Automatic annotation (TrEMBL):
Keywords: Oxidoreductase. It comes from the Bacteria. Belongs to the short-chain dehydrogenases/reductases (SDR) family. This is SDR family oxidoreductase. Coiled coil: none annotated. It holds the Pfam family adh_short_C2.
Length: 251
């Protein structure tokens, strides 16, 4: 079955960089019109998607803010008239600090963007996808949604929260035509990982050491999983927690 999203509309948060960028391009390659969402201005994605023969808009939005998220969905509908798929991917790593040293500000910001942001996005996306009677949402958690990481309590709590939230929303939507799944990437070569490794030899080797497969994943390898979970090939897949992690959580 050849996946095509022709005449469909996909929304990707955190679409200006890394995993979101690769997934927005992957949706476009499959024919979808794409709403690329990010809190950082971006002037390349719309052109890149046009070069792929599809249509796109860029929406500046902080996913942790209700008014921004409402406007994000409204602008998508105003531009394209419908919403079929959403990849709720925007996230931050937050500051590294142990549970007792984590500041309240770091806790609130990390949970606010990563967990509240995914909830807010689904809250306003679902009514629009329901109008189509069929669609799919994929949320982006992490291997940190499945196992603990010393020094990242807020990030780990936010990602575990996304896993539970996804399962709950999947149950709520199960008979309504919307499948809701969550992808848990391992260590993926993106600007976020560059920040975490500091791009130092020791940092890179430490993070590579987490990966049985012996290398970092590519953003496109996460995009492939998201596209599959949105496609009709995954028509019986909902509430699923998919690790795409080079064996990270098999250890
Ligand atoms: P990235 O930093 O390259 O991209 C994240 C994008 O999200 C950026 O463009 C950023 O501006 C945007 N963003 C952040 N906060 C936002 C907000 N409040 N509103 C709108 N946009 C916002 O990082 P990435 O590695 O591509 O990460 C994407 C997702 O994948 C994140 O949720 C991250 O936690 C998750 N993840 C990444 C890895 C990895 O190894 N890179 C592993 C597991 C999970």
């Amino acid at each position: 079955m050849e996946t095509t999203f022709k005449n469909k509309v996909a929304l990707v948060t955190g679409g200006a960089s890394g995993i979101g960028r690769a997934t927005a391009l992957a949706f476009a390659k499959k024919g979808a019109k794409v709403a690329v969402v990010d809190w950082k201005e971006n002037d390349e994605m719309v052109d890149l998607i046009k070069e792929l023969g599809s249509e796109a808009i860029f929406i500046k939005c902080d996913v942790s803010k209700t008014d921004d998220v409402k406007a994000m969905v409204a602008r998508t509908i105003a531009a394209f008239g419908r919403l079929d798929y959403a990849f709720n991917n925007a996230g931050i790593e937050g500051a590294s600090a142990s549970t007792q040293d984590c500041s309240e500000e770091n806790w609130d910001k990390t949970i606010g963007v990563n967990l509240k942001g995914v909830w807010l996005c689904m809250k306003y996306e679902i009514p629009e996808i329901l109008k189509q009677g069929k669609g799919a949402i994929v949320n982006c958690a992490s291997v940190a949604g499945l196992v603990g990481f010393a020094g990242l309590p807020a990030y780990v709590a936010s990602k575990h929260g996304i896993v539970g939230l996804t399962k709950t929303t999947a149950l709520e939507c199960a008979t309504q035509g919307i499948r809701v799944n969550v992808v848990c990437p391992g260590v993926i070569q993106t600007p976020m990982i560059d920040r975490l490794t500091g791009k130092t030899k020791e940092g890179i080797e430490r993070f590579k050491g987490f990966e049985p497969i012996g290398r970092f994943g590519l953003p496109e390898e996460i995009a492939n999983a998201v596209i599959w979970m949105c496609s009709d090939e995954a028509s019986f897949v909902t509430g699923h927690v998919m690790a795409v992690d080079g064996g990270f959580t098999a250890q």
